[in-house]
Inverse folding.
């Protein structure tokens, strides 16, 4: 279980990284916002990269668990649950989108492509045409975009519309 100070450092870093970008945020800024010394911050995280990895790790574990434990089934239910996952991690997604170099910290780019391929298979099966792949990519990407773009709205305003649209894009009927 992370210490309270460690969790506070991560929360402030996540906020500053989302606002300013990872490269434009110094550990000094994080420590000053928290009212702690830089050595105190270094006690918990040896570098900015270590801090970034610690922020990305929970999202990566959640997505990995999601795609590993799901069975093929109702696409609406899968997309509904996937949207909840995206919504929980929307600040981290913003951080990554703001500064794509963050993907390299944990080889996240290749992992994200693998997750998408696995999600597409869960949604539509194995034997897919290029049109299936394109529609599924739009559905999954659209959900992610909505979780980020409309994060200022309430979940119950965004999720039903986003999930219904994603299901429609799949053209399952």
């Amino acid at each position: 279980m992370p210490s309270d100070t460690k969790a506070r450092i991560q929360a402030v870093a996540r906020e500053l990284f989302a606002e300013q970008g990872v490269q434009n945020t110094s550990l000094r800024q994080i420590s000053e916002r928290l009212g702690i010394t830089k050595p105190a911050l270094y006690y918990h995280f040896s570098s900015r990269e270590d801090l970034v990895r610690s922020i990305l790790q929970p999202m990566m574990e959640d997505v990995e668990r999601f795609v590993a434990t799901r069975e093929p089934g109702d696409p609406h239910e899968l997309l509904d649950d996937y949207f909840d996952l995206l919504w929980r991690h929307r600040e981290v997604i913003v951080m990554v989108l703001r500064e794509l170099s963050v993907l390299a910290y944990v080889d996240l780019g290749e992992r994200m492509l693998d997750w998408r391929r696995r999600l597409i298979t869960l949604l539509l099966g194995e034997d897919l045409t290029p049109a299936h792949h394109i529609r599924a990519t739009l559905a999954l990407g659209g959900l992610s975009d909505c979780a980020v773009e409309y994060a200022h709205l309430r979940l119950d305003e965004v999720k039903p519309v986003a999930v219904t649209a994603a299901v429609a894009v799949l053209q399952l009927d």
